[in-house]
Write a structure and sequence with these properties.
The protein has 302 residues and is α/β, with parallel strands linked by helices. The protein contains ten helices and twelve strands. It has a five-stranded mixed sheet with strand order 4-3-5-12-6, covered by helices on one side. The N and C termini lie far apart (63 Å).
């Protein structure tokens, strides 16, 4: 006879939540977000056609029927774990996660943090490709797509994980040679531009009430990461996105001579095909991005 089995990812989330008595602790054990555990439990409840937990504001309580169900499936999970260990299986079969992200974001934010992700998840191979194409224009299918947002695309779930603003940044050595006391002093400096983002400096100067300012010189690059590198090298002053320069600010490679005004900017979001949104590995990577996003925001200028 054909076995009738509930969705196993959802069953795993329920078992952890029921055993630990907390969605939060279950999320920590499974290395996913609280929302991911809640989503999986609801999926199982829909499949079973019955509630498993009673929701009370910030806490949940397992139902009597679910507690009895947990009492039978819990030992099955333990038996699986013991059998795997008994026969010497490592449980570290490598999986590949395909990610598509913009080049500047990948170079300046994602790559410096990937080693940390790999250290905690040695069984996961991350394949990263860079592109600035819109989500709906990508010809290949990826597990996770990172783009600005929040936007809505049919067939994709979206989660923001990193916000940013833009403000002038330069190298400490440049300020030693030619200090910046007030925005008007920018007329003595070289302003660095990116051809794909021509409005950054005009918009910031307008917010600073010096729209007519004429700098000593201007340099324009075709890629944003080249503009930021020129700022690090002391060539001039760039409009830096706080998310992508947090490491440089923390390391003293860049400084922000003016913390105000700031230009608002779109957040970085993950876009995941609906068919992959409940995948354990995808949820794990999304959760990790959210945690790193929080940590990154704490490192930016106040």
């Amino acid at each position: 006879m054909k076995r009738v089995l509930p969705p196993l990812n959802a069953l795993r989330a329920f078992e952890a939540a029921g055993r630990l008595g907390s969605f939060k602790e279950a999320a920590a054990e499974l290395h996913v977000t609280h929302g991911a555990v809640s989503q999986q439990v609801r999926l199982l409840e829909e499949w079973l056609g019955a509630p498993l937990f009673e929701r009370h504001n910030r806490r949940v309580a397992i139902t009597p029927a679910a507690k009895a169900y947990l009492g039978e499936i819990g030992p099955v999970f333990e038996q699986l774990s013991q059998a795997t260990a008994r026969y010497g299986f490592s449980g570290t079969v490598s999986r590949t996660l395909s990610v598509n992200a913009p080049a500047t974001f990948t170079l300046r934010w994602l790559v410096p943090r990937l080693a940390k992700f790999r250290a905690g998840h040695v069984d996961v191979d991350v394949k990263v490709e860079t592109s600035n194409e819109p989500v709906e224009s990508l010809k290949e299918t990826y597990d996770v797509i990172i783009r600005g947002g929040p936007d809505t695309f049919y067939g994709y779930s979206m989660q923001p994980f990193l916000s940013e603003e833009r403000l002038p940044v330069c190298s400490p050595a440049l300020l030693q040679r030619q200090p910046l006391q007030m925005p008007d002093d920018l007329q003595q400096h070289t302003l660095l531009h990116t051809s794909s983002l021509p409005r950054l400096w005009p918009d910031w100067l307008a917010r600073a009430n010096i729209a007519e300012l004429t700098p000593a010189a201007a340099l324009t690059f075709d890629h944003f990461y080249l503009t930021l590198q020129a700022a690090i090298d002391g060539i001039g002053i760039a409009m830096g996105p706080t998310a992508l320069i947090s490491d440089d600010l923390a390391g003293g490679r860049l400084v922000a001579p003016f913390v105000d005004p700031r230009l608002p900017s779109r957040s970085y979001c993950t876009y995941v095909p609906d068919g992959k949104s409940a995948d354990d590995l995808v949820m794990l990577f999304r959760s990790w991005l959210e945690c790193e996003g929080v940590r990154s925001r704490k490192e930016t200028v106040p």
